[in-house]
Amino acid sequence: MARLQILVTNDDGWDAPGLAALKALAARFGDVHVVAPRDPHSYAGHRVTTDAPMVLSATAPAEYHLSGTPADCVRVALTAMAIPFDFVLSGINRGGNLGVDIYSSGTVAAAREAAFLGKPAIAISQYVQRGRPLDWSESARIATPTIERLLSQPHQTKEYWNVNLPHLETGAVAPELECTPDNEPLDVQFRREGDQLAFSGSYIGRPRTAGRDVELCFGGAVTISRLHV
């Protein structure tokens, strides 16, 4: 496979360990260029900035951070940088982006923005089990065969993939399963203290549909959902 020109971004911020893991993974397949948010933008969804200037600052050769959202980063990179990008990778997010998470996720929004602009993209997220340590090198190891396959296979215009990695013991093997995103809601609960409301729902306690991404990833599989805009 010819080396690709790959744009890497995320929503956890330019200095997040998941972004570093994704950069190293992507470098196996192409020339990596990074435009990532200067600040964390988890749960920002597909918010974009059109009412104020943004600052683009170099942090290393071929690496920048932007004072904008994940979708902004992709917009700027694909329209204002003279680089013929072949693919956009977004992640590796700390936390799953399963089922209805795709609508609030900045990680997935970056991949969706790429699809809007005609570039194939993959959003990659790492589901985290509470109380278990996370090894980002293991995340990269588990993700590598999936990313290699998706980078090399034919793709349609205006499509992108949402990939979620299970949280496994070191060295464990995870099956790859293509599936539909779950459409069940999150476990939406709030704790009220006076006039303040604090979200208290359980991510692992969310409803799930048999054979869809939430159940399969929680059960130890790498889930892959092909999405379109």
Give the topology.
Elements: E1 4-9, H1 17-26, E2 30-37, E3 56-60, E4 63-66, H2 70-80, E5 87-94, H3 106-116, E6 121-126, H4 136-152, E7 159-165, E8 176-178, E9 190-193, E10 196-199, H5 213-218, E11 222-228
Parallel strand pairs: 1-2, 1-5, 2-4, 5-6, 6-7, 8-11
Antiparallel strand pairs: 3-4, 7-11, 9-10
Oligomer: single chain
Number of E strands = 11
List the total number of helices: 5
Low-pLDDT runs of 5+ residues are: none
Kindly describe this structure.
It is globular and about 45 Å long. It is built from five helices and eleven strands, in the order E-H-E-E-E-H-E-H-E-H-E-E-E-E-H-E. It has helices at 17-26, 70-80, 106-116, 136-152, 213-218, and strands spanning 4-9, 30-37, 56-60, 63-66, 87-94, 121-126, 159-165, 176-178, 190-193, 196-199, 222-228. It is an alpha/beta fold and 229 residues long. The protein has a single domain (4-228), classed as Survival protein SurE-like phosphatase/nucleotidase (Stationary-phase Survival Protein Sure Homolog, Chain: A, 3-Layer(aba) Sandwich), CATH 3.40.1210. A nine-stranded mixed sheet has the order 3-4-2-1-5-6-7-11-8, with helices on both faces. It has a two-stranded antiparallel sheet with strand order 9-10. The model has no long low-confidence stretch (mean pLDDT 96). The chain starts with a strand and ends with a strand.
